Amino acid sequence: MNKQRLSFFSLLLLFSTPLLAQSIDQRINDFLTPVANAVDGFFMTAVPIPFLGSAPFIVIWLVVAATFFTFYFKFINLRSFGIGIKLIRGKYDNTGAPGEVSHFQALSTAVSGTVGLGNIAGVATAVSVGGPGATFWMIVAGLIGMSSKFVECTLGVKYRDIRPDGTVAGGPMKYLSKGFAEKGLGGFGKFLAVMFAILCVAASLGGGNMFQANQSFAQLQNITGGADSFLVGKGWMFGLVLAFFTGITIIGGIKGIAKVTAKLVPIMGLIYVVTGLIVIFANIGSLGDAISQIINGAFNPDAALGGVLGVLVVGFQRAAFSNEAGIGSAAIAHSAVKTDRPVTEGLVALYEPFIDTVVVCTITALVIVITGSLETSTGVQGIPLTSDAFASVVSWFPYVLTVAAILFAFSTMISWSYYGVRAWTHLFGENKTQENIFKVIFLLFVVIGSSINLTAVIGFSFAMTLAMSFPNIIGLYYLAPVVKKELDEFMAGIKSGEVVFKS
Q1: Does residue 502 lie within any of the structural domains?
Q2: Residue 501 belongs to some domain of the structure
Q3: How far apart are CA 315 and CA 328, in angstroms?
């Protein structure tokens, strides 16, 4: 059956020729621009903050929620690290529990969806726009975002559906509809769930697909000669190859995706982190100055973009887009975990923003600042800026960066394909036919994203992804007491000996 599906996908992809890309290039830009501007106009509306100035509504929305959950759960983002490690290592794995994947596989799948080109291109853009100080606020956003991730992933498991064949359907669509229904607000919950699903489908095709394919091909073309590269005009070929491997992976559903990400995430993370650390140690004499720039820039009242608040906004925006804490996407992957205690997956999910933002994003920012690339690469942003920073130490490091970028893009795409499938089937029916329809659409968009100049993709992706937080966080606030009860019972079980970790 899988071979038949793959053949079906392959036949459809053969129709994604350069002519297709050329014919829809401008149409996609024309369609996405007003949509992105409309959503962006609403969520990025400046809200006045007494004595400080103003900040976009969506940034305040995410920051206030993350701060509230951090205090409401008594700094669960910091005090549960030890327990989280045990859970990730499988010390509490229950093979007889419902679900499809282990704690580690669920975490790997979710991390692969967040650790993407945003960590390379996005951080570079944030630092070039907001200065080194934006790094500090990215780290802060990552730390408090751990609390938001804890809440949404616990709820994802709590309200998931386990089908007769053992497969799982979970995420915000489920806890918004079912959680609100428990309180007699089923109609409102269904409205929020549908709103989230629509935004999730759009985000999966934009930021989780076209943006990843587009930017990874751009980096490949850049290191092979740029405008003179033999790859110029051949993005569709790259897209077909990328779509082929993506198709092979996503046909297996969450189990197939989890098997790939469980191996791919540690490898790609190691490649990028080790390379970044080599660059940092090569410039170890400038490390103190780089850290000083980051801290001073974070609190410089004379900084560009409106002083401290302006730099904070840039840092928080980038962190939110990168680690997706409060967005709700990761809860879809974590819902598939094998566990009979929902809170265990929330404690595992805490590590996601830490790995994505506190570790990977910080390394990218440090590499750019410590090498002085902000000054030497004037006017350069995104992946080229990060590439210049890596090349300043070893000339062939940009090739390593390219491998990392493609791996990041691939892992992000396969995870977001699953998020899109779950959202799509929530809207159109939870069956294999609808799953396959979305997978075909997703693979076609891989080719399209690689083939064309999408000036509106970044704005569209950013807007759709952040917009998902609006219905999601309403649900998190409302259902936080449910999570608190789950957490208290689990912690009490540890103290009483009812919950026992394997030796």
Answers
A1: no
A2: no
A3: 20
Q: What tens digit of pLDDT does each residue of 131-144 get?
A: 788 888 888 888 89
3-state secondary structure 68-122: HHHHHCCCHHHHCHHHHHHHHCCCCCCCCCCCCECHHHHHHHHHHHHCCHHHCHH
- What is the rounded distance in angstroms from the CA atom of residue 151 to the CA atom of residue 485? 12
First-last CA distance in the chain: 41
**Number of domains forming the structure of the chain:** 1
Token pair recorded at residue 58: 């969506």
Token pair 């990218």 in the structure block, residue: 364
At residue 9, the 3 state secondary structure works out as helix
Query: Looking at residue 327, what DSSP letter applies?
Result: T
Amino acid, res. 183: K
Instruction: Give percent helix, percent strand, percent coil of the chain, each to the nearest 5.
Output: 75, 5, 20
Name the region of 378 (left: φ>0; alpha: ψ -120 to 50; beta: rest).
beta
Task: Report the CATH number that the domain containing residue 52 is assigned in CATH.
Answer: 1.20.1740.10
Cα 415 to Cα 333: distance, rounded to the nearest angstrom: 8
- Spatial CB neighbours of 107, under 8 Å, sequence gap ≥ 6: 88, 334, 348, 349, 351, 352
Residue 77, domain member (yes or no): yes
Which residue range(s) make up the domain with 328? 2-496
Q: Locate tokens 């590499």: which residue?
A: 367
Token readout for 380 is 């350069």
**149-204 per-position pLDDT tens digit:** 999 999 998 998 887 777 778 889 999 999 999 988 889 999 999 999 999 998 89
Report the distance separating Cα 491 and Cα 154, nearest Å.
14
Angle at 470 between CA 28 and CA 39, to 5 degrees: 30
